[in-house]
Amino acid sequence: MAAEAKQSSYDGSHVENFEFYLQCSGEHESILHFLMKHLPEEFERIGADKSGLAVLGVGSGGGEVDVQMLSLMQSTLSALPITADIVEGSTELVAKFKGLVTKTDHLQKIPFTWHTMLSEEYMQKTKGRGDVKTFDFIHMIQMLYYVDDLTETIKFYHSLLNKNGRLMIIIESANSGWDTLWRTFSKELCNEILPVYRSSSDVLASLKSLGLKYEEHFIPNTFDITECFDPNSKTGQHLISFMTGRENFYQSFTPRVRADILNVLRSKCSTEKEGKVSFNSEMRCVFVYA
Ligand SMILES: C[S@@+](CC[C@H](N)C(=O)[O-])C[C@H]1O[C@@H](n2cnc3c(N)ncnc32)[C@H](O)[C@@H]1O
């Protein structure tokens, strides 16, 4: 019997939890604020002397950030036709992304090719082929935590870049709240979906080992986790469950581990002012040169 294809963990309740997290964290808003400022210049440079642009999104989720970037690319380089390929492991999120495209009139001009599979399968299928499609702009936003081999993945997607192209990686910063939380409790939190926790320092180490040229930017973000310390708050419990990668934080850990996690969350991952606990979820954006 053929081995069952590995699935993305982003289906069912995990999608709901992720969407809840996006609402609480302001993560997309911070990413978009950064991108709207920096991408027009990148797109102008990538598009110079080209007759069309090919975009590849890897781990694009429900496409909320992708549709904004593609719209920005259309308005910045209005004369250039654009194609979009999407590699995304979750069928549920691909369906959401397709729904978003259908609702957005100006995106009807862009032909989309949907690769509903994990990056590992896309790499495997593409590697053996002679007519490999190459791209001008490849992005991987908040997804490199989940790939099997970080350096191989970066090396592969970098090899698909056209002249003057860019690979854009967005990932949590080294020493951010996420990094501190997951590295401190790696024994308790890491599992088969996330066997190790990665942050920007791992990405930079891979880029250095590959000898690739890049530039790095900060994307500041914080969000309110005060309610996570109230066991009677549904919002707080939902949020802390997502942050610790569990369905139910209170049922998943011993009282001792729960207390330790709450203590580190408050004292090492956040700042506290007038009773409000703000979690540091700073991200990095790395533009890797072709
Ligand atoms: C944290 S979400 C980020 C989604 C989107 N980029 C965003 O910022 O909203 C991670 C995404 O990566 C996808 N994913 C996880 N492992 C993957 C893999 N090995 N290959 C491709 N996509 C993957 C998940 O299905 C999910 O959509």
Provide structural commentary.
With 290 residues, the chain is an alpha/beta fold. It has a single domain, classed as 3-Layer(aba) Sandwich (Rossmann fold), CATH 3.40.50.150. The protein has twelve helices and ten strands. It has a seven-stranded mixed sheet, sandwiched between helices. It has a three-stranded antiparallel sheet with strand order 7-9-8. α6 links the parallel β4 and β5. The N terminus is likely disordered. Bound molecules: S-adenosylmethionine. The site of S-adenosylmethionine has 21 residues, from α3 and α5.
Provide the descriptors you would attach to this structure in a database record.
10 strands, 12 helices, 3-stranded antiparallel β-sheet, Rossmann fold, disordered N terminus, globular, 7-stranded mixed β-sheet, alpha/beta, 290 residues, binds S-adenosylmethionine
Quick recap of the structure?
With 290 residues, this protein is an alpha/beta fold. The chain contains twelve helices and ten strands.
